[in-house]
Structure formats: C-alpha cells, structure tokens
Amino acid sequence: MIPIRDRNPSGTFPFITIGIIGVNVLIFLYELSLGSDLVVFLNQYGVVPIKVTHYFQSSDLTLTDTFFPFLSSTFLHGGFIHLIGNMWFLWIFGDNIEDRLGHFKYLIFYILCATIASSVHVYFNNQSEIPCVGASGAISAVLGAYMVTFPRARVTTVVPIFFFIQIIELPAVVVIGFWILIQFFSGAVSLTTSASDGGGIAWWAHIGGFVSGIILFYIIRVLFVRKPKRRRYG
Predict the structure, then answer these.
(1) What sign for the dihedral angle of Cα 146, 201, 134, 165?
(2) CA dist 189 → 21, 182, 204, 213 (Å)
(3) pLDDT for residue 133
(4) Rounded to two decimals, what is the model's pTM?
(5) pLDDT tens, 65-119?
(6) Which of 134, 218, 207, 143 has the alpha carbon at shortest distance from 175?
C-alpha cells in the first residue's frame, strides 16, 4: 500500500513539517556534494551502534561524537528513494499531528521520538558498525500518533492487486496498521538472522518510533495540550 494523500485537512499551517522537509532536502543536497567524503560524513553523523555500546570502554570516543548523531542522523538519508519516501509520508501525515500538538510541542515530539527510535535500533543491533541514518524513526512516530488519533480518516492509497493497480480510499487504521504489521514481521525475522553488522533497513527503529509516538503523543496531549473540538471526516 502506498498512500497518496489523506482527506483530513489541517486547521493550521504546518510550517514545522515543511521546515523539517526543507532541512532534510538541503542536507541531502550537501551529502551529494561530498563525493568520496560521504562515507566519513555518514560515519561521523549517523548512529553507529558499536560506538554507543563501547563508549565507556574506549578512550577515543567523545560524548559529542557518540551521542550527537542521535539527533543529526534524523536529517541524513542514504539515497533519493530513501529521502523521497520519508518526506512523502511526513508530508501526508505530519500536518495533522502538528495541528493537534501545536508547532513547538510537535517539534519536541519529533526529536524525542527520533532519539528513542535510534536507541531501540542500537539495542537490537548493538555490535553493528554501520551508521543508521534517516527520518524513518521519527516519521514512524508520526504514523503511530496519526493512527490512534484519526483512525477513520480516509487515505487515498495505491493498492497492487495481482497484476493490477487500484486506487482506493481506506481508513488510516488499515493503511498504517498494515504498514506496522510489516515492520513487526520484518523486525522479528531480522532477529533470527546472523547479520552481526545490522545492515539494511532499521526495522526496530521503525517499531520503536511507532510505539514511542503513540505513548509520547498522549503524554504531551494530556499534560500540555487542550482538548480540541470533535471533528468529522467526509
């Protein structure tokens, strides 16, 4: 399933969501300019699990070099498809969560969930020397918050049925629920592999981000956000 758009208009202008997309694009353009230095750049600003797990055992690792990537990695991407896929999901679903939380609290929510998602990835890939980059963990948190807040919101979705492509409107709970099931299944399968370097897709970052998004969204709303008026969906 590939979502195209949702029928859930936002009540405010999503300048934080647009700003995050803009920063990701600009940083990716900078990545393209690095040439052969890109590998060094990603190793420096991506989350490398073994650096985290061996921080107290190595005199060469600084606090900044080890833990700043939990933030910086969220704005890095490994290719055009990686960037476009993440920003597309953020564009569709991010504005409504920003509207519900408020701009500043949404930004804090996004950063905290990104950090938690990376931490979950480190836990399940603690010996990996491969840098983990991308906004997927934070965007998974947005998806989790969206699913529990707007479960019946209609999402226009591309659905391949055998050899045919269908465009269907489905409830958000179906679209996002199907997506997270794939993440859980793939994450479970990844635990049975012997790939000690933890390469490929960071499934557990997605799962960690999704779960943290649901929990943190409710915490922020209960403590800091007034309850909005009920809305209907067409």
Answers:
(1) negative
(2) 31, 11, 11, 23
(3) 92
(4) 0.88
(5) 788 999 999 999 989 999 999 999 999 999 999 999 999 999 999 999 999 999 9
(6) 143
Residue 226 token pair: 């007034």
Tokens of 52: 């985290």
CA dihedral 152, 158, 160, 165 (to 10 degrees): 130
Length of the chain (residues): 234
Q: Is residue 230 part of a domain?
A: no
Range of the domain at 183: 2-224
Instruction: For residues 228 and 230, give the distance between their C-alpha atoms in angstroms, rounded to a whole number.
Output: 6
Query: What total number of domains does the chain contain?
Result: 1
DSSP 8-state assignment for residue 34? T
CATH of the domain at 95: 1.20.1540.10
